[in-house]
Model the fold of this input.
Amino acid sequence: MTAQEERLCGLLLQEHFGEVVEKVGTHLLRSGVLNLRALVHETKLPLDLVKKSVCVLVQQGMCSFSAGRRGPGAPVEYQICCEKVLHMLRYPHYIYTAKSLYGDTGELIVEEILQRGQMTMSNTVSTVADRLTHNMPEGQCMDYSEVVTAFSRLVETHFLQRSPSVTPAGSSTSGGADSNPPAVTQPIQAETHPDCYKLPYINISGKGKRRRSDDGDADQSTAKKAKTDNSEFGDEGIYWQVNFERFHLHFRDQAIVSAVVSKLDQTSSEIVRTMLRMSEVTTPANAAFTQALSANEIFRALPSTYNIARPILDQYLTLLVDDPMEFVGRTGDSGGGMFVVNLHRALANLARATLESVVQERFGSRSARIFRLLLRKRHLEQKQVEDFAMVPAKEAKDMLYTLLSENLVQLQEIPKTPDHAPSRTFYLYTVNQLPTARLLLQHCYKTVGNLIERRLYETKENKRLLEKSQRIEAILASLQATGAEAEQLTEVEEMITAPERQQLESLRHHINKYRTSNSTPHASMTHRIHVNVTSSSFFFVLAGWIPVKTKWMRPYFLSNPTSNPQSPHAERYLDKCRLV
Amino acid sequence: MAGRGRGQLTFSVEIIGIGKGENLPPSCIQPTPVYPPLEQKPVPLQTGEEAEYMLALKQEFRGAMRTLPFYIRPTAPKKDVERYSDKYQKTETSDILEWKPDWRRFPKELRVRETRASKDKSPAVPKQVKLPRVDKVEIMHKLETLEQKEKEGSSDEEEAEKKKPEEEEADGEEVYDEEEFEDETDYAMSYFDNGEEFGGDSDDNMDEAVY
Done:
């Protein structure tokens, strides 16, 4: 965990949970493993605040606790998982994915669980039903059974999983510990839990309730009844959390399919998508290939809209296998040919493409050509680089040195003599894909951190203006509600002068740009998949074939503020911009 | 000793490709500027319905997180002068968790009591309980010696003194309200009139039944 990751974690914790949790969290991140007393002592915060913060972090799944290392009597030790905190950047993506797969119900379920960390099924169902009912037109309400269906489907496709249960630590030691009740509970890993995805049988029925007072007494009585019924739903103690890994696998699949679309065509991408869908649940997370599927199975599983004949399918499959990107591989001949999707190789190729596009966007196409050359040929001397890349010597030198200074390219020494004399050593340029990818990832984290800080700074600087505009909007809204005349409205609107209005508009534009660009670099590195391949472990930075939209290291003031308040974008921003 | 004209380097720069007598740009001895000019303009941001929807989602999420009980605000800093009205204003609930977690899943030491008598305060309560008791015993002795000599007025004073710690102790046992422990106001918030001690202690005969 690097300094950039730490800084970003701190900013994220501050935005979502406040300064106290941020202080506690960053301290715990830096120190590794700490017990409660040490944490209180070092952060110099009052004990109850520290306790509350740790509770919040444990509830959200970012902090884990375990019995002390020095034996059963040692105090409980806490540890923060940096990755889980960084997942917070991607929450909108998860919610959007759930929406696209399972509709509004799925979206709300995932949003609720993400907000609360862990929830029981009955609690989730009732909250989501209420929210949906609130948004429905008068007279309709959402039945619990629909929400339960959506929930079950999410669990079946492994997007939600049970939270690991905690077992008392005393059970692992000898019977001597039974006299004192265990002060510490030991959580077990979520993946090894055998009932991870088993739905509990709950006795829940009813409809969503509106949160409006005009529904009258019926609401009150049913609300009371709902509260007392909560404990009788039968799933006490079974908490559900979002399975981030599964979402990441989904993003990975999407990236592969969109890559195939760009490289080949729509039909091939449908074939690949079908193959991935068929092996969704059966392929383990870190597998190098999906399950082998025969051509017959693929033919049967293709969506009915794609009416392609069997020999055409075979041709497409052959095309996919022969493609240099190696998305699909052939592993056997039974059943018309056994095919697998080469996940790791596809990811490696996609990562390489990302690196290349980053160099291209930043340094120009000639540097990109040199970079691609070095990726393919591994080690080259200065002279060879000039010859192969067909770039004049001076420019080649210049570009190589620029890339070297940015650490995208490395020099490798190969001595001819044991004394490593400089005049008798080869110096070769090389690119190491893995460290370079890591470097880019850290750049992205730094960028996101910078953008957040800039946004906070901007908001703070213009706080007065934002407050004023909010008040004006509130006045306008209340006037409109009470049916005022147009003159009064215009008078109120004129309370903001035109340059102020322009300034406000540009400010909002920038802030939203910062917010969007916060999510885009992450969209382009949607998942880093740890792969243990024989000798080394890889991080893969992914993007589609679209050029990577990372903003390099320093925030920009881009482009012209749109000073047209009538545009629909401005309207939406006006509605949604909040004071931070 | 190659490269004497360019500073002492450990290897011959011809290998990397700098020819003899070639003009290199002057070496840079200051840190790079913070905002260097960009040769290539960055690619524009993603726009489109998806991106806007996710932007809206993000803002809503952040707004919602602020209203949830997980957002912990630091304790407000103390004002410059302690005001009298502060005692009667609602103090912030600094040691109550506003949400109810399932304590079976948390380590015991994190448990924050809902009754406001957290672990820090619980050793204080027995201490305070002990002190009035000790005082009571002493005062009882004093009274016994004094009641033979003194008038009723002085014994009333001592009873009043004894009543106050008793009241506080009784209040502490009934309602875990630290305000009365810490601030000995002249007028207690819930006035507890225990008539037993009042009637019993002023009598000469201590063997009578206490009402």
Notes: Chain B touches chain A through 57 residues (CB under 8 Å).
